[in-house]
Amino acid sequence: MKFKYILLTVLTVVLLNACSEDFLDRPSQSALTSAVYFKTQADFESAVNGIYAPLRTFYNNQTKNNTWVPPNLQMGDMHSDNARYYYNPNYRAVSESSADFIPEPNQFSGYWNSYYSWISRANQVLAMIDNEGIEWESTAVRDNLKGQALFMRAWSYWWLAQLYGDACIHLEPVASVEEASVPLSPESEIIGIVITDATAASTLLLNKANQQPGRVTSGTAKMLLAEVAIWEKDYGTAETLLESLAGEYSLMLTYADVFDPNQKNNAESIFEIQYSGATSTYSSNFAYPMMPYPMSADTMAKLTGVSNATALTEGEGYCTPTPLLLAAYEPGDERFDVTIRYIYNANDSLVPTCVKYLHPHSLNFQADENMPIWRYAEALLYLAEAINEQPGSRQAEAMGYVNEVRNRAGLVDNTTATTQQEVRDAILQERRIELAFEGKRFWDLVRFDLVEDVVTDYGAAVRADPIGYYLGIGIDPVPTAFTDFRTKFEIPDGERLVNPYID
Fold first, then answer.
1. Is the pLDDT of residue 64 over 70?
2. Which of 1.25.40.390, 3.40.50.150, 2.60.40.3410, 2.60.120.260 would CATH assign to domain 1-68+109-205?
């Protein structure tokens, strides 16, 4: 879909949802103005809700077509040595581009449109929320709404910077179709916007104790700033931000508690995408495409607890844990059983399967799982990294935070890492296990400059044992597999076609 038409669609939806009851007071038909629509606190509350709304569809399979995996897992886990696909010869050709690291034009390009739709919605709010004449319940209410819009814009630009590097900057609502096309700005400027917006958001947003569950908080904004600082190697700033989260957040008692649908938005949750199994419109279904197809209806009923389960036939298992990931777990690590289970499919094959998002629910394809974005466990591991990367021989201090995460997982033996490199390796290992199937692994390989080394070795392992990596008898990876070591991706062709500033 072409970028300028997406902007038109998004803006139209936002404006219509917040329109005045006076249908005679209409805006210009040749401009995308929204000046007459935002007049009350309720208008802004609806508009901010509208910023959150696309997140649910972005991370979830709304079509129920059994062939989808959340984009953060596709990018962060399948596009790494963590996960593959359980090959179904009746469903696809030999390769899956993201999991096999095959160079492909527009790989992950659909993300571009999504982030700009969120930016567009945020800009509509930010352009008018400080206007005079609006009656607010309190300044704090206005600030909290403004902070949410600023955070969503910052987060969107952060993803654009990570995925594409250079990107187009829009900080005001697009008033005409022509304004949708602007030159690319360098990654450094994009990151500057992220820092500016997230810093402002951190001072405007409510903290977790006072914020409505599911909404971003001042702690969420600080976590984003800390992540940016880690990537920018500003470790002192990252340490200060991460230390400020202590007290507001804490680890749950067990790893299983973190993902229990009955404990959503818990003490460990810094931000998670909200779903509800009560209705099909708001439900999630992350576990279904991760099953090792084909699956019988009887097995699905036992796994999901639903009485109306149906067989899974046209698809294949996505996010299948690799032998490399399986081997990375230590004996006694409680995270293994929470994350992975061996399941028999209809062909009587026993396949390791991601079950982190599989809990009993009431109706078929209508689960009640939230999607975690940031957790306090990750904040502790980031804090260990920030401390370890600074001068001063603070490795023992850094490992204290790593061991705090390990101990919660039932690993009573602390790691013996002492040098900076050993601690760095220990952190990377701990992040791999603690955050498996939360979309983090590829980005860790990028940050530690390990993409080419890891993917090369990973590809060699798959070629040496294609059956062990779920390709089936007589099936080998295509010659171009595991040759794509990019850490930035192409801007979509659709944007290039309509934006004269992009070659």
1. no
2. 1.25.40.390
